[in-house]
Amino acid sequence: MPDITTLTLTDLRAKLAAKDISATQATQACLDRIQATEPKVDALLCVQAEAVLEQAKALDQAGPDKDKPLWGVPIVVKDAICTKGVPTTCGSKILENFVPFYDATCVERLKNAGAILLGKANMDEFAMGSSTENSAFKPTRNPWALDKVPGGSSGGSGATVAAGQCFSSLGTDTGGSIRLPAAFCGVTGIKPTYGRISRYGVVAYGSSLDQVGPMARTPTDCAAMLAVMSGHDPKDSTSAPRPVPDFEAETAARRDLKGLRLGMPGEYWGEGLTPEVRDRCQAAMDTAKSLGAEIVPVKLPHTQYAIATYYIVAMAEASSNLARFDGVRYGYRSPEARDLKELYELSRSKGFGEEVQRRIVLGTYVLSAGYYDAYYRKAAQVRRLIRQDFLNAFEKCDVIVGPTSPFTAFGLGEKTGDPLQMYLADIFTISLNLSGLPGLSVPVGLGKDTGLPVGLQMFGKAWDEATILGAAHALSGALPGLGEPKGL
């Protein structure tokens, strides 16, 4: 039998159902892998070893349950998502001792489906960052090269899957925070349509942008996770009462790309791409064509305004959402404060990291009297133009395709001194969040210069996750695999 931790989620589930592997064996294999790799990768903030072994034994005693589609599957959850009885720090000192008394809806649904929650993944503080270097506790390293970043802000979620510590993980995507680490770590990650998965229990960063999504080794694995978490939740007013397709069956059924029109926006394939990313992505498009896809040019003319628009909208919403962390109601409280004013100042200045404080200040500025119309209102208007670009493009194609990132994973510390350069890492992912549409990143090979994973991004129409998952499944099946991460 191969090493259990090298199996896909789909393969593991089949072996669990057939009793070829027990839930205890699968869980113990992941814990052993965590023990062996975590000192190198630092992907996790918390591991519930004893508790999950007890849970796995209880599952084995009850036997496989066909009504629980993730029965016995070990997973990891980003630390921005509330987990009952398990610390949820959001990568910040201000929430260092916060232990929720309830599960987020997405976690509750995974548990009801039989999944085993191994622990919580490291992240950029309050999901603000593109490298997972902004965590208050430690940076996470890329399993493919330990001197490189895993991407952010869900870098821990990407690295833990790539390192074989679990079979799937949850991330949150506000401006590309699932797709970028998926590309850098060589795994598949999907941001669903806004409203597809409940945000109840997810610590808010940018409320009109945040979405929860899975990361896993294959598109089919992601489809299995997405199917469990999707659906209306009355606890979240932004959760949509839409029917949930059979994502897994539709994904697995797609064997080629015949009848599919793939749109290539010139704005994503022009200047700024490194040669190795361009080569790998172009080779993937050639493969897509050989699978029967029709390649059509499309235009997204307002792409150049996406970065500026995103950072006005996201920071404005962040400054509002993070106002609740003041040292009074909950969170870190400074013991040095002599009066109420100092309590607010010292608790927030010592509890929040530098990047979070920078975004709160910028967000407060763009919402302030006299500047609202000049910045926030204008950004909201441009946001609508960016969404209209996508709607116009989808009149000519079924899926829009482009690189997930202009480059492969960069070095630890390489961009931390220049916030603007860090923000530009999300240049190809941000537009999708502003539009509320679904998108995924799928690995398409290793760069010939760096030997690091390259991700290809697929954008879909609203509520059409099945099409991009199926296309990614067919394409990745025709491409050579990446092999094992070389940094471990």
Task: Give an overview of the whole structure.
This protein has 488 residues and is of the alpha/beta class. The protein has 16 helices and eleven strands. Strands 1-3-2-4-6-5-10-11-9-7-8 form an eleven-stranded mixed beta sheet, with helices on both faces. Helix 4 links the parallel strand 2 and strand 3. The mean pLDDT is 96.
Write a brief caption for the model:
The protein is of the alpha/beta class.
Number of helices: 16
Mean pLDDT: 96
Considering DSSP H and I runs of 4 or more, what fraction of the residues is helical? Answer: 25-40%
Order of strands, widest sheet: 1-3-2-4-6-5-10-11-9-7-8
Q: Ends: how far apart?
A: 21 Å
SSE pattern? HHEHEHEHEHEEHHEHEHHHHEHHEEH
How would you describe the shape? globular
What's the count of strands? 11
What can be said about the biggest beta sheet?
11 strands, mixed
Oligomer: single chain
Structural class, by secondary structure, is alpha/beta
Report the uncertain regions: none
The rounded Rg comes to 21 Å
* Strand coverage percent: 5-15%
Question: How are the elements arranged and paired?
Answer:
Elements: H1 9-17, H2 23-41, E1 44-47, H3 49-62, E2 74-78, H4 105-112, E3 116-121, H5 155-162, E4 168-172, H6 179-185, E5 188-191, E6 212-216, H7 219-229, H8 247-253, E7 261-265, H9 275-290, E8 294-298, H10 306-321, H11 340-351, H12 354-367, H13 373-393, E9 399-403, H14 419-423, H15 430-435, E10 439-446, E11 453-459, H16 465-478
Parallel strand pairs: 2-3, 2-4, 7-8, 7-9
Antiparallel strand pairs: 1-3, 4-6, 5-6, 5-10, 9-11, 10-11
